[in-house]
Design goal:
- This protein is α+β, with helices and mostly antiparallel strands.
- About 20% of the residues lie in helices and about 45% in strands.
- It has five helices and 18 strands.
- The strands form three sheets. Strands 6-2-3-4-18-17-16-10-14 form a nine-stranded antiparallel beta sheet. A five-stranded antiparallel beta sheet has the order 5-1-7-8-9, with helices on one face. Strands 13-12-11-15 form a four-stranded antiparallel beta sheet.
- The longest helix is centred in the middle third of the chain and has 14 residues.
- The termini are far apart.
Length: about 250
């Protein structure tokens, strides 16, 4: 490597751009980790309610010249630059000293530079952090059905319950008004009966990732954090959401 410490190239960066947009709704600054396996981001939102894990394997890059590198970036700035790409563009990310050079190659070659930043909070590993979480039940359903169900709930409430009951998966919101979606044959459901309540503000952000893939995978347990997994080709995006504990009147 000559004047740069890291060089990676992404072809057709549309998915990468959309994922960066989704993560930027949760956190404003992240560490991007590069190593022999690829690139990953793990971040916890400022309210400590949600965590995101994003992984791109090395094989998904058309060029990958880097050792172990950790770079701190402002996601709003990165998002604005990535939105300047087209579906047929290729993007080169180069680190040199305290800068991230972003080169967009399509009909013309365009170049941006981002100042790298120091991230204050501790570094976390998504797999290590989630390995201790015990989920009793799993659901896999069509992403479009999941999106519809969450959007139905948003019409009537600010939180909804995910329920596994006798082989059925139910998404239900009840306040003054109510909404309910029930899945049986339309989803793969396994595990025991359970119920947990979650914030719709966060779930509506996560459903933006559902638009990028056909299936949404959900792992849950009784009054327990929720895990939602998306696989977009080889790219993996996962969210953990803390349950909303209600006080009984």
């Amino acid at each position: 490597m000559s004047d740069f410490e890291m060089l990676v190239k992404i072809e057709n960066p549309l998915t990468f751009t959309k994922v960066i947009e989704i993560i930027s709704e949760l956190v404003s600054e992240v560490r991007m980790n590069f190593n022999e396996f690829g690139m990953s981001i793990t971040a916890i939102d400022p309210a400590n309610v949600a965590m995101v894990g994003f992984r791109i394997p090395k094989s998904s890059f058309s060029q990958f010249e880097t050792g172990d590198e950790v770079i701190g970036v402002n996601l709003d700035n990165l998002k604005k630059i990535m939105k300047r790409t087209n579906s047929g563009s290729s993007v080169i990310l180069k680190k040199r000293e305290n800068l991230l050079d972003i080169e967009i190659q399509d009909r013309i070659k365009r170049k941006f530079s981002l100042n790298l930043i120091d991230i204050e909070n501790e570094e976390i590993d998504f797999e290590e952090k989630t390995s201790r979480m015990m989920f009793s039940s799993k659901v896999e359903l069509n992403s479009s059905d999941f999106i519809d169900s969450i959007e139905d709930c948003i019409v009537v409430a600010d939180a909804c319950s995910f329920i596994i009951e006798e082989g059925k998966f139910i998404i239900e919101a009840k306040e003054m008004n109510s909404a309910r979606a029930e899945f049986s044959d339309e989803a793969l459901i396994s595990g025991e009966n359970c119920k947990s309540r979650y914030s719709l503000e966060y779930l509506s952000k996560f459903t933006k990732a559902s638009k990028l893939c056909d299936k949404t995978k959900i792992s849950l347990a009784n009054n327990h954090p929720l895990r939602i997994d998306f696989k977009i080709n080889a790219i993996e995006l996962s969210f953990i959401l803390a349950p909303r504990v209600e006080t009984e009147d």
